[in-house]
Amino acid sequence: MATPKKTPQGTWRIQLEIQGVRDSGTFPTKRDAEAWAQQRATEIRAMASGKAGTVKTLRDALRRYAEEVSPTKRGEAKEIIRLKAFEKQALPLTKTLDNLTTADLAAWRDSRLAVNARGSVLRDMTLLGSVIEVARREWGWIKTNPMRDVKRPQNPDHRQRVINGREIRGVLRSLGHGRGKTLTVSQAVARCFLVALATGMRAGELCAIQWADVKPDHVRLHTSKTGVARDVPLSGYAKRTIERMRGWDDKSVFGLQPQTLDSLFRRARERAGLSGFTFHDARHSAATRIAQKLHVLDLCRMFGWKRVDQAMTYYQPRASDVARRL
Predict the structure, then answer these.
(1) Is the domain defined by 165-325 classed in CATH 2.60.40.1220?
(2) How many Å apart are CA 293 and CA 270, to the nearest integer?
(3) First-residue to last-residue Cα distance in the chain
(4) Pair 12, 4: CB distance under 8 Å
(5) Where are the alpha helices (DSSP H) in 114-272?
(6) Over the stretch 40-92, which tens digit does the pLDDT of each residue have?
(7) Which pairs with CB-CB distance under 8 Å and at least 24 residues apart come from 46-54?
(8) Helix/strand/coil (H/E/C) assignment for every residue in 256-310
(9) Domain ranges in the chain?
(10) What is the pLDDT of residues 244-270, one digit of tens each?
């Protein structure tokens, strides 16, 4: 059996080679690394003996889900990366699904919480639970979903990072923002950022806007995180900023992919010597400002929230403001 080695980061890395097959993984504890190596060794030997494929394991479920289900989703690429990452974690991958227990999944949850934020662990639990549920409901590989009984970590506090004026100016300078025509990709990122601050649209939504979607007083979003199309009203400033993108791209307003937008924004922020906020925080900043002007239900429609409680984080009017409306 291979021996785990401690890394400078405090994690444990293990490498194994069995019958010509090599594999490796990094884990939060030595025990997790040894457990993974034992499971992987069992699987490799089963494959070599021709017994693999007679039973359906958790690894089988992960791979079939990546091949058949993930491609039907908007976030296919990122989800497949996460599914592959599961195979390097302390999961009983070679266990048949009908032998998978709540205790197995709880142990995996705890190993993840030791090195990851609650929000990340919650997202991973949701994805893994979906894999097992599809295997139960559609493939008939398992009778009950053991993830249903695994206690979920407490939801992390809602992020309310507001980007201040100094930070906005610093990022815009770093991107070479000006008042003339858009001449560079960095300038397109700058204007995309400004529209995000004005409207609260998400990065993916902004990148998907076509010129045909731009109306005199609003933008029509055909694809969104919630899967529901919506109209986003435009302020005068937002309309002028969008108009300055004319001539940059014939079809797409900003001519950007979400990955490019995120990468260039992060680099610009770092060049400006700033930290602690992301492009998505422009949405929080917009919601905080716009909540002072709109009724809570209008705020939900504009931002695409299905539940009123999502807006209540931002909608906190003073008693004096409410009194003036009575």
Answers:
(1) no
(2) 33
(3) 75
(4) yes
(5) 118-137, 165-174, 185-199, 203-208, 236-243, 258-271
(6) 787 777 666 655 444 689 999 999 999 999 998 877 888 999 999 999 898 99
(7) 46/94, 47/21, 48/19, 48/21
(8) CCHHHHHHHHHHHHHHCCCCCCCCCHHHHHHHHHHCCCCCHHHHHHHHCCCCHHH
(9) 5-149, 165-325
(10) 999 999 999 999 998 899 999 999 999
With the C-alpha atoms ordered 47, 108, 278, 76, is the resulting torsion angle positive or negative? positive
- The token pair that represents 269 in the structure block: 């922020």
Domains 5-149 and 165-325 share a fold: no
Which pair of structure tokens corresponds to residue 186?
């960095």
Cβ contact 192:221 at 8 Å: no
Residue 257 CA to residue 298 CA, distance in Å, equals: 29
What is the distance, to the nearest Å, from the Cα of residue 321 to the centroid of all Cα atoms in its chain?
36
CATH number belonging to domain 5-149: 1.10.150.130
Instruction: Report the C-alpha gap between 26 and 252 in whole angstroms.
Output: 41
Q: Are 306 and 226 in contact (CB under 8 A)?
A: yes
